[in-house]
């Protein structure tokens, strides 16, 4: 049985994140992608296949070229998941900021005495 790939697996690898960043700006053929990395074209093809399996890249043939295009809609799942924790950390940072302001105020009051 083949394991299902998901968007989290795709973005877990720095090379795949770099490929997505590259394709987010404009579609590229496989040679142009491979040229940007110090690894074999075969290794890049595997990374692109994983991205395609996860729905982050769409591949289309134009003549003899394989053109890769980013499909970033799949990242909305990651954004929703991260969003659950964003509020938590924003609240913590707000509390830290209030605490630091209190310390600063107390220090100023001691200094002015």
UniProtKB/TrEMBL annotation:
It comes from the Bacteria. Keywords: Coiled coil. Residues 86-113 form a coiled coil. SUPFAM superfamilies: Winged helix' DNA-binding domain. Pfam families: HTH_5 (PF01022). Residues 1-90 form the HTH arsR-type domain. Gene3D superfamilies: Winged helix-like DNA-binding domain superfamily/Winged helix DNA-binding domain. NCBIfam families: HTH_metalloreg. This is ArsR/SmtB family transcription factor. It comes from Mucilaginibacter ximonensis.
């Amino acid at each position: 049985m083949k394991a299902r790939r998901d968007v989290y697996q795709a973005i877990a690898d720095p090379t795949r994140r770099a490929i997505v960043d590259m394709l987010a700006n404009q579609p590229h053929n496989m040679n142009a992608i491979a040229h940007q990395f110090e690894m074999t074209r075969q290794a890049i093809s595997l990374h692109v296949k994983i991205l395609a399996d996860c729905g982050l890249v769409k591949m289309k043939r134009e003549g003899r070229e394989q053109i890769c295009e980013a499909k970033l809609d799949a990242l909305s799942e990651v954004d929703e998941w991260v969003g659950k924790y964003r509020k938590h950390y924003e609240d913590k940072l707000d509390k830290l900021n209030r605490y630091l302001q209190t310390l600063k105020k107390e220090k100023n009051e001691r200094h002015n005495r």
